[in-house]
Amino acid sequence: DSSRNMSRVLILSTTTGYQLRSFGDAAHRAGIELMFATDRCHQLDDPWRDHAVAVRFHEEDASLDAIVEASRSRPLDGVIAVGDRPVVLAARTAQALGLRGNQPAAAAASVNKSLFKRALARAGLPVPWFFETSSDARVSVDLRVQYPCVIKPIGLSGSRGVIRANTARELDSASSRLRALLSRKDVRAIRSGLEDRILIEGFISGREFAIEGVMTSGTVETFAIFDKPDPLDGPFFEETIYVTPSTLDRATQAAVVAQVARAGAALGLQNGPFHAECRVAPDAIYILEMAARPIGGLCSKVLRFEGIPGMPTASLEDVLLRHAVGQDISAATRETRAAGVMMIPIPRCGTLKCVHGIDEASAVAGIEEVQITAKADQLLEPLPEAGSYLGFIFARGSEPDHVIRSLNAAHARLRFDIAAPIEVM
Predict the structure, then answer these.
(1) Where are the alpha helices (DSSP H) in 218-295?
(2) Count of C-beta atoms within a 10 Å radius of residue 166
(3) Which residues contact residue 256 at a Cβ distance below 8 angstroms, ignoring those fewer than 6 apart?
(4) pLDDT in tens, 127-163
(5) Which of 156, 293, 354, 368 could be 417's S-S partner, Cβ–Cβ 3.0 to 4.6 Å?
(6) What is d(CA 135, CA 179) in angstroms, rounded to the nearest whole number?
(7) What separation in angstroms does the CA of 44 have from each of 40, 53, 191, 275, 377?
(8) 149-153 β-sheet, strand order
(9) Which residues contact 93 (CB under 8 A, 6 or more apart)?
(10) 5-20: pLDDT as tens digits
Protein backbone atom coordinates (compact mmCIF):
# COMPACT_ATOMS: atom_id res chain seq x y z
CA ASP A 1 0.00 0.00 0.00
CA SER A 2 1.78 3.12 -1.28
CA SER A 3 -0.01 5.47 1.13
CA ARG A 4 0.94 3.75 4.41
CA ASN A 5 2.89 6.83 5.47
CA MET A 6 -0.64 8.18 6.15
CA SER A 7 -3.00 6.92 8.81
CA ARG A 8 -6.39 5.78 7.51
CA VAL A 9 -9.73 6.02 9.32
CA LEU A 10 -12.97 4.28 8.38
CA ILE A 11 -16.07 6.50 8.61
CA LEU A 12 -19.33 4.54 8.77
CA SER A 13 -22.37 6.60 7.88
CA THR A 14 -25.75 6.64 6.22
CA THR A 15 -25.48 8.35 2.85
CA THR A 16 -27.37 11.36 4.22
CA GLY A 17 -24.80 12.13 6.94
CA TYR A 18 -24.19 15.90 7.04
CA GLN A 19 -20.83 15.44 8.74
CA LEU A 20 -19.04 13.58 5.97
CA ARG A 21 -17.76 16.77 4.34
CA SER A 22 -16.54 18.05 7.72
CA PHE A 23 -14.61 14.81 8.25
CA GLY A 24 -13.18 15.10 4.74
CA ASP A 25 -11.92 18.62 5.43
CA ALA A 26 -10.47 17.56 8.79
CA ALA A 27 -8.73 14.55 7.26
CA HIS A 28 -7.11 16.78 4.63
CA ARG A 29 -5.79 19.10 7.38
CA ALA A 30 -4.46 16.20 9.46
CA GLY A 31 -2.89 14.24 6.63
CA ILE A 32 -5.20 11.31 7.37
CA GLU A 33 -6.82 9.28 4.61
CA LEU A 34 -10.50 8.37 4.94
CA MET A 35 -12.30 5.24 3.86
CA PHE A 36 -16.10 5.42 3.85
CA ALA A 37 -18.60 2.64 4.41
CA THR A 38 -22.14 3.80 3.59
CA ASP A 39 -25.54 2.27 2.91
CA ARG A 40 -25.73 3.47 -0.69
CA CYS A 41 -26.96 1.38 -3.58
CA HIS A 42 -24.35 -1.36 -4.09
CA GLN A 43 -25.44 -1.88 -7.70
CA LEU A 44 -24.18 1.56 -8.77
CA ASP A 45 -20.49 1.69 -9.56
CA ASP A 46 -19.12 4.17 -7.00
CA PRO A 47 -21.62 6.98 -7.79
CA TRP A 48 -19.90 9.53 -5.53
CA ARG A 49 -16.35 8.66 -6.64
CA ASP A 50 -15.14 8.21 -3.05
CA HIS A 51 -14.38 4.46 -3.27
CA ALA A 52 -16.79 3.80 -0.41
CA VAL A 53 -17.60 0.27 0.72
CA ALA A 54 -21.32 -0.36 0.17
CA VAL A 55 -22.84 -1.80 3.36
CA ARG A 56 -26.28 -2.62 4.79
CA PHE A 57 -26.56 -1.83 8.48
CA HIS A 58 -29.27 -4.49 8.86
CA GLU A 59 -26.95 -7.10 7.26
CA GLU A 60 -24.05 -6.82 9.66
CA ASP A 61 -22.21 -10.06 8.86
CA ALA A 62 -22.04 -9.41 5.11
CA SER A 63 -21.19 -5.74 5.70
CA LEU A 64 -18.39 -6.66 8.10
CA ASP A 65 -16.99 -9.12 5.55
CA ALA A 66 -17.00 -6.37 2.89
CA ILE A 67 -15.14 -3.94 5.18
CA VAL A 68 -12.57 -6.55 6.26
CA GLU A 69 -11.99 -7.45 2.60
CA ALA A 70 -11.54 -3.77 1.65
CA SER A 71 -9.10 -3.31 4.55
CA ARG A 72 -6.76 -5.93 3.09
CA SER A 73 -5.69 -3.51 0.37
CA ARG A 74 -6.37 -0.38 2.44
CA PRO A 75 -5.39 -1.16 6.05
CA LEU A 76 -7.19 0.84 8.74
CA ASP A 77 -5.90 2.61 11.85
CA GLY A 78 -9.22 3.80 13.31
CA VAL A 79 -12.98 3.71 12.93
CA ILE A 80 -15.73 6.26 13.67
CA ALA A 81 -19.51 5.83 13.43
CA VAL A 82 -21.57 8.85 12.34
CA GLY A 83 -25.19 8.53 13.49
CA ASP A 84 -26.89 5.77 15.49
CA ARG A 85 -27.36 3.13 12.81
CA PRO A 86 -23.64 2.42 12.08
CA VAL A 87 -22.63 2.22 15.78
CA VAL A 88 -22.75 -1.58 16.16
CA LEU A 89 -21.08 -2.28 12.80
CA ALA A 90 -18.32 0.18 13.76
CA ALA A 91 -17.75 -1.74 17.00
CA ARG A 92 -17.68 -5.08 15.19
CA THR A 93 -15.22 -3.67 12.66
CA ALA A 94 -12.90 -2.41 15.41
CA GLN A 95 -13.08 -5.81 17.12
CA ALA A 96 -12.40 -7.76 13.90
CA LEU A 97 -9.44 -5.58 12.91
CA GLY A 98 -7.94 -5.11 16.39
CA LEU A 99 -8.59 -1.35 16.42
CA ARG A 100 -9.58 0.94 19.30
CA GLY A 101 -13.35 0.89 19.76
CA ASN A 102 -16.16 -0.54 21.84
CA GLN A 103 -17.38 -4.07 22.42
CA PRO A 104 -20.37 -4.70 20.11
CA ALA A 105 -22.69 -5.39 23.07
CA ALA A 106 -21.77 -2.04 24.66
CA ALA A 107 -22.27 -0.23 21.35
CA ALA A 108 -25.66 -1.91 20.86
CA ALA A 109 -26.84 -0.90 24.34
CA SER A 110 -25.82 2.71 23.65
CA VAL A 111 -28.30 3.04 20.77
CA ASN A 112 -31.15 0.81 22.00
CA LYS A 113 -33.36 2.64 24.49
CA SER A 114 -34.41 -0.55 26.30
CA LEU A 115 -30.94 -2.13 26.57
CA PHE A 116 -29.61 1.23 27.72
CA LYS A 117 -32.12 1.56 30.56
CA ARG A 118 -31.48 -2.03 31.67
CA ALA A 119 -27.71 -1.51 31.76
CA LEU A 120 -28.09 1.62 33.93
CA ALA A 121 -30.59 -0.09 36.25
CA ARG A 122 -28.26 -3.08 36.72
CA ALA A 123 -25.47 -0.67 37.70
CA GLY A 124 -27.69 1.03 40.29
CA LEU A 125 -27.93 4.30 38.38
CA PRO A 126 -31.16 6.28 38.68
CA VAL A 127 -33.69 5.39 35.98
CA PRO A 128 -37.44 6.01 35.90
CA TRP A 129 -39.75 2.99 35.97
CA PHE A 130 -39.88 1.47 32.48
CA PHE A 131 -40.91 -1.57 30.51
CA GLU A 132 -40.66 -2.73 26.92
CA THR A 133 -43.62 -4.05 24.97
CA SER A 134 -44.91 -4.47 21.41
CA SER A 135 -46.26 -1.48 19.52
CA ASP A 136 -49.71 -3.10 19.21
CA ALA A 137 -50.11 -3.60 22.97
CA ARG A 138 -52.90 -1.64 24.72
CA VAL A 139 -50.53 -0.11 27.25
CA SER A 140 -53.12 2.10 28.98
CA VAL A 141 -54.60 -0.99 30.68
CA ASP A 142 -51.20 -2.20 31.93
CA LEU A 143 -51.06 -1.92 35.71
CA ARG A 144 -47.37 -0.94 35.58
CA VAL A 145 -48.21 2.41 33.98
CA GLN A 146 -48.18 5.54 36.15
CA TYR A 147 -48.73 9.12 35.00
CA PRO A 148 -47.23 11.25 33.63
CA CYS A 149 -45.39 8.78 31.39
CA VAL A 150 -43.52 8.83 28.10
CA ILE A 151 -43.97 6.40 25.20
CA LYS A 152 -41.17 6.02 22.67
CA PRO A 153 -39.96 3.74 19.87
CA ILE A 154 -36.90 1.66 20.74
CA GLY A 155 -35.45 1.77 17.23
CA LEU A 156 -35.73 5.45 16.24
CA SER A 157 -33.22 8.13 17.24
CA GLY A 158 -33.57 11.58 18.72
CA SER A 159 -37.04 12.71 19.75
CA ARG A 160 -38.82 10.99 16.85
CA GLY A 161 -41.94 9.23 18.07
CA VAL A 162 -41.43 10.30 21.70
CA ILE A 163 -44.72 11.42 23.29
CA ARG A 164 -45.73 12.33 26.84
CA ALA A 165 -49.11 11.18 28.20
CA ASN A 166 -50.75 12.48 31.39
CA THR A 167 -53.86 10.25 31.29
CA ALA A 168 -54.99 6.87 29.95
CA ARG A 169 -56.86 8.62 27.13
CA GLU A 170 -53.70 10.55 26.13
CA LEU A 171 -51.71 7.30 26.27
CA ASP A 172 -54.20 5.56 23.95
CA SER A 173 -53.92 8.47 21.51
CA ALA A 174 -50.09 8.49 21.73
CA SER A 175 -49.97 4.71 21.21
CA SER A 176 -52.02 4.84 18.03
CA ARG A 177 -49.96 7.76 16.72
CA LEU A 178 -46.73 5.88 17.41
CA ARG A 179 -48.13 2.70 15.80
CA ALA A 180 -48.95 4.67 12.65
CA LEU A 181 -45.42 6.09 12.55
CA LEU A 182 -43.81 2.68 13.00
CA SER A 183 -45.91 1.21 10.18
CA ARG A 184 -44.70 3.79 7.65
CA LYS A 185 -42.60 2.67 4.70
CA ASP A 186 -39.67 4.97 5.49
CA VAL A 187 -39.48 3.61 9.04
CA ARG A 188 -39.88 -0.05 7.99
CA ALA A 189 -37.09 0.52 5.46
CA ILE A 190 -34.61 1.15 8.28
CA ARG A 191 -34.93 -2.57 9.11
CA SER A 192 -33.42 -2.29 12.57
CA GLY A 193 -35.42 -5.26 13.81
CA LEU A 194 -36.95 -2.96 16.42
CA GLU A 195 -39.78 -1.49 14.35
CA ASP A 196 -42.46 -3.14 16.50
CA ARG A 197 -40.94 -2.54 19.94
CA ILE A 198 -41.74 0.42 22.20
CA LEU A 199 -40.72 1.61 25.65
CA ILE A 200 -42.99 3.12 28.31
CA GLU A 201 -41.30 4.99 31.15
CA GLY A 202 -41.96 7.54 33.85
CA PHE A 203 -41.62 11.20 32.88
CA ILE A 204 -38.72 12.96 34.60
CA SER A 205 -39.11 16.65 35.34
CA GLY A 206 -36.12 18.96 35.32
CA ARG A 207 -33.79 20.83 32.99
CA GLU A 208 -32.17 18.92 30.16
CA PHE A 209 -28.52 19.05 29.12
CA ALA A 210 -26.32 17.42 26.47
CA ILE A 211 -22.74 16.31 27.00
CA GLU A 212 -20.20 15.81 24.23
CA GLY A 213 -16.91 13.98 24.66
CA VAL A 214 -14.82 10.89 24.06
CA MET A 215 -14.00 7.71 25.93
CA THR A 216 -10.32 6.87 26.09
CA SER A 217 -9.56 3.42 27.55
CA GLY A 218 -12.80 3.63 29.53
CA THR A 219 -12.19 7.15 30.87
CA VAL A 220 -14.53 10.02 30.01
CA GLU A 221 -13.05 13.19 28.51
CA THR A 222 -15.70 15.92 28.29
CA PHE A 223 -15.57 18.53 25.54
CA ALA A 224 -18.70 20.51 26.41
CA ILE A 225 -21.89 20.55 28.45
CA PHE A 226 -24.73 22.14 26.48
CA ASP A 227 -27.66 23.87 28.13
CA LYS A 228 -31.03 23.37 26.45
CA PRO A 229 -32.71 26.62 27.51
CA ASP A 230 -36.17 25.78 26.13
CA PRO A 231 -38.27 23.63 28.48
CA LEU A 232 -38.70 20.05 27.25
CA ASP A 233 -41.85 19.03 29.08
CA GLY A 234 -43.85 17.52 26.21
CA PRO A 235 -46.14 16.38 24.83
CA PHE A 236 -43.37 16.24 22.18
CA PHE A 237 -39.69 16.83 22.84
CA GLU A 238 -38.40 19.03 20.06
CA GLU A 239 -34.84 20.11 20.67
CA THR A 240 -34.18 23.64 19.50
CA ILE A 241 -31.25 25.48 21.13
CA TYR A 242 -27.95 24.05 22.41
CA VAL A 243 -25.63 26.57 24.06
CA THR A 244 -22.28 26.20 25.81
CA PRO A 245 -20.61 26.82 28.25
CA SER A 246 -23.31 25.62 30.62
CA THR A 247 -24.75 28.04 33.18
CA LEU A 248 -24.94 25.22 35.74
CA ASP A 249 -22.82 25.82 38.83
CA ARG A 250 -19.47 24.04 38.90
CA ALA A 251 -20.51 21.44 41.46
CA THR A 252 -23.53 20.39 39.38
CA GLN A 253 -21.43 20.30 36.21
CA ALA A 254 -18.96 18.01 37.97
CA ALA A 255 -21.84 15.83 39.16
CA VAL A 256 -23.21 15.61 35.59
CA VAL A 257 -19.81 14.53 34.22
CA ALA A 258 -19.43 11.97 37.03
CA GLN A 259 -22.87 10.53 36.24
CA VAL A 260 -21.99 10.32 32.53
CA ALA A 261 -18.82 8.43 33.49
CA ARG A 262 -20.90 5.98 35.56
CA ALA A 263 -23.26 5.49 32.62
CA GLY A 264 -20.31 4.85 30.28
CA ALA A 265 -18.95 2.26 32.72
CA ALA A 266 -22.41 0.67 33.07
CA LEU A 267 -22.61 0.28 29.29
CA GLY A 268 -19.01 -0.85 29.02
CA LEU A 269 -17.96 1.87 26.57
CA GLN A 270 -14.20 2.00 26.07
CA ASN A 271 -13.02 4.14 23.15
CA GLY A 272 -14.46 6.72 20.80
CA PRO A 273 -16.88 9.64 20.73
CA PHE A 274 -20.07 9.82 22.76
CA HIS A 275 -23.11 12.07 22.86
CA ALA A 276 -25.05 11.97 26.13
CA GLU A 277 -28.25 13.62 27.33
CA CYS A 278 -29.35 14.07 30.93
CA ARG A 279 -32.02 15.64 33.11
CA VAL A 280 -31.10 17.35 36.35
CA ALA A 281 -34.14 16.51 38.49
CA PRO A 282 -34.73 17.51 42.12
CA ASP A 283 -33.84 14.01 43.35
CA ALA A 284 -31.05 12.90 40.97
CA ILE A 285 -29.24 13.33 37.67
CA TYR A 286 -30.82 10.98 35.14
CA ILE A 287 -28.81 9.99 32.06
CA LEU A 288 -31.36 9.76 29.24
CA GLU A 289 -29.00 8.48 26.57
CA MET A 290 -25.32 7.94 25.88
CA ALA A 291 -24.76 6.98 22.28
CA ALA A 292 -21.34 5.82 21.06
CA ARG A 293 -21.13 8.44 18.30
CA PRO A 294 -20.60 12.21 18.01
CA ILE A 295 -23.32 14.88 18.06
CA GLY A 296 -25.53 14.61 14.98
CA GLY A 297 -26.22 16.67 11.90
CA LEU A 298 -24.42 19.97 11.45
CA CYS A 299 -24.45 20.65 15.20
CA SER A 300 -20.77 19.72 15.49
CA LYS A 301 -19.96 23.10 13.90
CA VAL A 302 -20.81 24.78 17.21
CA LEU A 303 -17.68 23.26 18.80
CA ARG A 304 -14.25 24.79 18.23
CA PHE A 305 -11.06 23.79 20.00
CA GLU A 306 -7.69 25.25 20.89
CA GLY A 307 -4.57 23.30 21.83
CA ILE A 308 -4.13 21.13 18.70
CA PRO A 309 -0.51 21.68 17.54
CA GLY A 310 -0.28 23.77 14.37
CA MET A 311 -3.98 24.71 14.41
CA PRO A 312 -5.22 28.04 15.84
CA THR A 313 -8.73 26.56 15.97
CA ALA A 314 -9.81 22.98 15.39
CA SER A 315 -13.19 21.39 14.65
CA LEU A 316 -14.76 18.47 16.49
CA GLU A 317 -13.90 16.30 13.49
CA ASP A 318 -10.23 17.41 13.72
CA VAL A 319 -10.14 16.20 17.32
CA LEU A 320 -12.06 12.95 16.70
CA LEU A 321 -9.87 11.85 13.78
CA ARG A 322 -6.72 12.35 15.86
CA HIS A 323 -8.31 10.45 18.74
CA ALA A 324 -9.32 7.61 16.40
CA VAL A 325 -5.71 6.98 15.35
CA GLY A 326 -4.48 7.03 18.95
CA GLN A 327 -3.07 10.55 19.19
CA ASP A 328 -3.15 12.33 22.55
CA ILE A 329 -5.90 14.96 22.45
CA SER A 330 -5.80 15.88 26.15
CA ALA A 331 -4.50 19.38 25.31
CA ALA A 332 -7.58 20.14 23.17
CA THR A 333 -9.90 22.52 25.02
CA ARG A 334 -13.06 24.22 23.80
CA GLU A 335 -12.69 27.90 22.88
CA THR A 336 -13.50 30.35 25.68
CA ARG A 337 -16.33 32.15 23.82
CA ALA A 338 -19.92 31.06 24.23
CA ALA A 339 -21.41 29.26 21.25
CA GLY A 340 -24.79 27.89 20.30
CA VAL A 341 -26.90 26.32 17.61
CA MET A 342 -30.61 26.40 16.93
CA MET A 343 -32.07 23.38 15.16
CA ILE A 344 -34.81 25.21 13.26
CA PRO A 345 -38.12 23.56 14.15
CA ILE A 346 -40.70 22.64 11.52
CA PRO A 347 -43.78 24.77 12.34
CA ARG A 348 -46.41 22.75 10.49
CA CYS A 349 -47.02 19.94 8.01
CA GLY A 350 -46.83 20.79 4.32
CA THR A 351 -44.56 21.31 1.32
CA LEU A 352 -41.70 23.79 1.69
CA LYS A 353 -41.93 26.45 -1.02
CA CYS A 354 -39.50 29.10 0.16
CA VAL A 355 -37.66 30.49 3.19
CA HIS A 356 -37.68 34.31 3.41
CA GLY A 357 -35.48 36.52 5.58
CA ILE A 358 -32.23 34.54 5.48
CA ASP A 359 -30.14 37.68 4.82
CA GLU A 360 -31.88 39.59 7.64
CA ALA A 361 -31.38 36.65 10.02
CA SER A 362 -27.72 36.36 9.03
CA ALA A 363 -27.19 40.07 9.77
CA VAL A 364 -28.22 39.72 13.44
CA ALA A 365 -25.30 40.49 15.77
CA GLY A 366 -23.54 37.31 16.87
CA ILE A 367 -24.92 35.13 14.07
CA GLU A 368 -22.26 33.22 12.16
CA GLU A 369 -24.35 31.22 9.74
CA VAL A 370 -27.93 30.39 8.78
CA GLN A 371 -28.06 27.13 6.87
CA ILE A 372 -31.38 25.83 5.50
CA THR A 373 -31.00 22.10 4.89
CA ALA A 374 -34.59 21.34 3.83
CA LYS A 375 -35.05 21.52 0.07
CA ALA A 376 -37.74 23.35 -1.91
CA ASP A 377 -40.78 21.14 -2.54
CA GLN A 378 -39.73 18.83 0.31
CA LEU A 379 -42.62 17.49 2.39
CA LEU A 380 -42.19 18.71 5.97
CA GLU A 381 -43.79 17.38 9.11
CA PRO A 382 -43.26 18.43 12.71
CA LEU A 383 -42.54 16.14 15.64
CA PRO A 384 -43.29 13.50 16.72
CA GLU A 385 -43.28 12.16 13.13
CA ALA A 386 -40.44 14.39 11.87
CA GLY A 387 -37.10 12.84 11.08
CA SER A 388 -35.23 16.08 10.30
CA TYR A 389 -35.03 19.85 10.84
CA LEU A 390 -35.55 22.81 8.54
CA GLY A 391 -31.97 23.86 9.08
CA PHE A 392 -29.52 25.31 11.59
CA ILE A 393 -28.56 28.73 12.95
CA PHE A 394 -25.12 29.18 14.54
CA ALA A 395 -24.07 31.99 16.88
CA ARG A 396 -21.13 33.01 19.07
CA GLY A 397 -20.82 35.68 21.75
CA SER A 398 -19.25 36.66 25.03
CA GLU A 399 -21.98 35.06 27.18
CA PRO A 400 -24.44 32.17 26.74
CA ASP A 401 -27.38 34.59 27.21
CA HIS A 402 -26.12 36.75 24.32
CA VAL A 403 -25.93 33.68 22.09
CA ILE A 404 -29.50 32.62 22.97
CA ARG A 405 -30.79 36.13 22.24
CA SER A 406 -29.00 36.15 18.87
CA LEU A 407 -30.41 32.76 17.89
CA ASN A 408 -33.96 33.71 18.82
CA ALA A 409 -33.69 37.10 17.07
CA ALA A 410 -32.40 35.46 13.88
CA HIS A 411 -35.14 32.83 13.97
CA ALA A 412 -37.79 35.55 14.37
CA ARG A 413 -36.64 37.08 11.07
CA LEU A 414 -37.19 33.87 9.10
CA ARG A 415 -40.54 33.28 7.38
CA PHE A 416 -41.45 29.89 6.03
CA ASP A 417 -43.72 29.51 3.01
CA ILE A 418 -45.19 26.05 3.55
CA ALA A 419 -48.04 24.90 1.30
CA ALA A 420 -50.76 22.90 3.00
CA PRO A 421 -50.55 19.16 2.30
CA ILE A 422 -52.83 17.89 -0.48
CA GLU A 423 -55.63 15.79 0.93
CA VAL A 424 -55.72 12.32 -0.63
CA MET A 425 -59.33 11.25 -1.16
Answers:
(1) 250-267
(2) 13
(3) 209, 211, 225, 248, 278, 280, 285
(4) 999 999 999 999 999 999 999 999 999 988 889 999 9
(5) 354
(6) 6
(7) 8, 12, 21, 33, 26
(8) 130-134, 197-202, 149-153, 163-165
(9) 10, 12, 37, 64, 67, 68, 76, 79, 99, 101
(10) 789 999 999 876 667 8
